[in-house]
Design goal:
Elements lengths: L2 E5 L8 H8 L4 E5 L14 E4 L14 H14 L3 E5 L1 H9 L4 E16 L1 H5 L9 E12 L5 E6 L7 E4 L3 E4 L7 H11 L2 H32 L5
Parallel strand pairs: 1-2, 1-3, 3-4, 4-9
Antiparallel strand pairs: 5-6, 5-7, 7-8, 8-9
Helix pairs in contact: 2-3, 5-6
Length: about 230
Amino acid sequence: MNVLIIKHIDIEGPGLIEDYLKEEKILHQMIHLQSGVDLQKIDDVTHLVILGGPMNVYEEDRYPFLREEDLYIKGAIQRGKKILGICLGAQLIAKALGAKVFKAPMKEIGWYDVSLTEEGSLDPLFSEFPKTFSVFQWHEDTFEIPKAGKLIATSSPTPHQAFRYGENVYGLQFYLEVTEEMIREWLKADEDGDEKIEILTQTERKIGSNKRRGMNFFTIFFKNHHREG
């Protein structure tokens, strides 16, 4: 197993994903695209994880690496690699599959409930999740579900929260990998006052459940998820 993690900004790291990979001694490497590092040859990669970031998928002129990343994701999908995209990562996967990415009805920052669809309840990565659960969000864009993709989690006012394409490709609008330290760092940079206090209060209450669900999800995605696309 050889996991490649694509990072877009310093403070949006892999969190629990890296904790899990280190714990299980799974070979992995992380590259920071903004620093101009070349992408690893896709044939050498078994799993691709695409993290979040503040840029939008349609800002290729401002962030030229997004063009190269788009081609890389398309190549990984064509070769049947196991792929997980989170927030911006999910939007990049949707775009690579020909779906539109656009401004969501509202910006979501903090803890929000999402619900599994019927398809989601049957999905092997979500089978241990409750029907409705709380997730950490930080986004202003959303995506269409790609053609032939399956909607697996939904919410109001952003109905497209997670999708699966084929058997191996997953896009999540929310952050299952987030840790309390990551949230504190993000809030330090962006949020002030009462909203920040409320998010931190909710984080203390919800972070434990999020970690349990996240680690279960990553265990299946990396170790037990052997279905071929």
